């Protein structure tokens, strides 16, 4: 049988009871750990030995995630070196001066020079560097359409949405539930814009993690016994400017950033971050 293409194929084998006997909080988390090589399929107590044996050959030998990420970044940097950054700047709505292409990332300057070296007014994290490189290399630079779509409505987003929900929307909701100044900070620290409430939400804030890549966070407060809710939406033009992996990276990275912001202010326990 061919190797598993993603964690969702492994997830389909599980009973989805979230029993935690494997050491993970959910079956989806276990599937992700198996896919990345951090867990073995037979560590699920609910799977029969026959099932484990049947799918044992479906795993390719995988490199550590950090190594895969570093190699991916290196490939993108090598392509940047051979790219006309002045032409790329015109295409994506960036500024080019000297040997640097510069854009605004959450309101802060973020640049790459002709040698592929990054320069920024903020800490350079892989979650933003990778999508930035992809945007410079392949983004069409089309302006926002004004039409919002959820992650699962984007190209190739349906399959990845359960993991996006777990890594992005759920952590952001937890922060919003406990850190009441979150949305004010998004506006004042990250150049966000509070807009008229969308989709009947209580709060809607638009951020620009990259030029022409607006992201909207909609939050519904708990009411009448109903739990709170939070969803992320992207302008549909994102399909022409980024691939789904880059969109996922931006969402997951921003969720981690919001968690750290809340932790710094004492609103979340350290155990939240794993």
Summarize the structure.
This protein is an alpha+beta fold and 274 residues long. The chain has helices at 7-11, 27-35, 49-54, 65-81, 85-92, 126-138, 157-178, 182-188, 238-241, 244-264; strands at residues 95-97, 100-105, 108-113, 118-120, 148-150, 193-194, 203-210, 213-220, 229-235. It has 3 domains: 7-58, Orthogonal Bundle (3-methyladenine DNA Glycosylase II, Chain A, domain 3), CATH 1.10.15.40; 65-138, no CATH class; 148-272.
Please describe what this structure looks like:
It is a single chain. With 274 residues, the chain is α+β, with helices and mostly antiparallel strands. It has three domains: 7-58, 3-methyladenine DNA Glycosylase II, Chain A, domain 3 (Orthogonal Bundle); 65-138, no CATH class; 148-272. 41% of the residues lie in helices and 17% in strands. The protein has ten helices and nine strands. The protein has helices at residues 7-11, 27-35, 49-54, 65-81, 85-92, 126-138, 157-178, 182-188, 238-241, 244-264, and strands spanning 95-97, 100-105, 108-113, 118-120, 148-150, 193-194, 203-210, 213-220, 229-235. It has a five-stranded antiparallel β-sheet with strand order 5-9-8-7-6. Strands 1-2-3-4 form a four-stranded antiparallel β-sheet, with helices on one face. The protein is globular, with a radius of gyration of 20 Å. Mean pLDDT is 87; it is low at 268-274.
